[in-house]
Amino acid sequence: MSKLSLSSTVALKSGGSMPLLGFGVYQSTQALASSSTALNEGYRHIDSARIYRNESEVVSSVAAWRKDGGKGDVWITSKVTGKEHATDKCVAAVEESVATAKAGGLQWDLFLLHDPTAGPEKRLQAWRVLEAAASDGKLKAIGVSNFSEIHLKEFKAAGVSTPEVNQIEQKPIVNYCKSEGIIVQAYCPIVRGQRMDDPVLKAICEKTGKTGAQVLVRWSLQSGFVPLPKSDTPSRIAENAAVFDFELDEDSMAKLNALDLGKEGACSWNPVGHV
Questions:
Q1: How far is 84 from 71, CA to CA, in rounded Å?
Q2: Residue 25: closest CA among 57, 3, 67, 1
Q3: Which residues are catalytic?
Q4: How far apart are CA 47 and CA 25, in angstroms?
Q5: Using CA atoms, how far apart are residues 182 and 157, in angstroms rounded to an integer?
Q6: Contact, 113 vs 80, CB < 8 A?
Q7: Widest CA span of the chain, in angstroms?
Q8: Which of 66, 122, 190, 261 could form a disulfide with 118 if both were Cys (CB 3.0 to 4.6 A apart)?
Q9: Which of 245, 213, 242 is CA-nearest to residue 38?
Q10: How does pLDDT run across 37-66, given as a tens digit for each residue?
């Protein structure tokens, strides 16, 4: 495995290079401050969504960081929720988000359908809206979130483009995504702290000298995912990025893989089974 670093990226078919470690702002009560902290800690990838109601804070944090002398590219992502799918609603939502980014001198590097809950017809309509926005240069890359194999195969049968990314919590869809060249982003990579007392995880922490959060983020990276840890606590934001000075050995990876509980292990809203 090639050595990973905070500057490691994965190439998208559309030409972009997405940083492997992202910073999530779901339910953030201070997205502007937390995003700024993340940027100062070396994160170059921030994941927002329309339903998070903090797109403008994320954009403002990046704009301010650049104004203060920040160097390099920062990858920003947003998403349009199922309630805003269907053609007209999705067009309006995308235009609003594009305007928010533009106000800060930015453009969304990645824009996702947030969930599949609108149903087959509206999902497809919304995807075509994203395709058109990308074709017009308003969005750089497009993808989906919480989509199952069934939802992705619907797109394939309809003859539309393949999403570049699927942002999910659970693993069952991973193999299909890999077979289709779809990058897997992982939200809730720290399982909301619910497994920190697991004996297997604790033993690996003792062996590596790392925290449970660091071990889980590192596992996600070594598994080929793009993890999106979130926090409003500055020390934890820094902790979650300090995962590039160690490597999990094969035995540790195997033991962590064995902890997978499938859909029973979900710690978040997870609508991948929605039809």
A1: 35
A2: 57
A3: 52
A4: 6
A5: 16
A6: yes
A7: 54
A8: 122
A9: 242
A10: 999 999 999 999 999 999 999 999 999 999
